[in-house]
Design brief:
The protein is mainly beta. It is 12% helix and 41% strand. It is built from three helices and 13 strands. The protein has a six-stranded antiparallel beta sheet with strand order 1-2-5-12-7-10, covered by helices on one side. It has a five-stranded antiparallel beta sheet with strand order 9-8-11-6-13, with no helix packed on it.
């Protein structure tokens, strides 16, 4: 059975995400990590873990952004996703998230804390999941400004301009 993008959005009650695409939080642990047990990059306590559904559709993208926690991506259905990662050491990595292992795609991948990353589906749509630990908080979310990111990663100027909204 083919499922439409609108059916996925309605069934999972997905909402527009500030970085692009649609999302729905599906899990937020009830227990919290005290602020004094976390590194100083966090400005308060955090849940142990959070999880979301994330949907990208054709002609859209997830803009470069970063968070303060590791993020584990899980592929569910649809077309493969390219995740462009600019690591804190200056290296670029392309992660192919999908089900075709012969094409180098993975079902699961990690974007490390502090890395800038952007993503785009390779087809009509991609439904993935993202698990974050310590749990996601919008206080830890930062959308990139192209001009500032290009100063950090001058060799990736074309990619940065393509995947930034400002």
């Amino acid at each position: 059975m083919d499922i439409s993008i609108q059916q996925l959005i309605q069934f999972y009650q997905l909402l527009p995400h500030p970085e692009g695409g649609y999302y729905k939080e599906t899990y937020r642990s009830s227990e919290r990590i005290p602020a004094d047990s976390l590194s100083e990059k966090f400005n308060g306590e955090r849940n142990y873990s959070t999880a979301i559904y994330f949907l990208l559709e054709k002609n859209s993208f997830s803009a470069f952004h970063r968070i303060q926690s590791d993020e584990c991506w899980h592929f569910y259905t649809g077309d493969a996703v390219d995740i462009h990662v600019l690591h804190t050491n200056g290296n670029y990595e392309l992660i192919k998230l999908g089900s075709n292992i012969e094409m180098g795609e993975q079902y699961q991948a990690i974007v490390p804390a502090g890395a800038w990353f952007a993503s785009k589906t390779n087809g009509q749509y991609s439904l993935v999941g993202c698990t974050v630990s310590p749990g996601f908080d919008f206080a830890d979310f930062e959308l990139a400004k192209a001009s500032a990111l290009i100063l950090q990663y001058p060799n990736q100027e074309k990619l940065i301009k393509h995947f930034c909204r400002s």
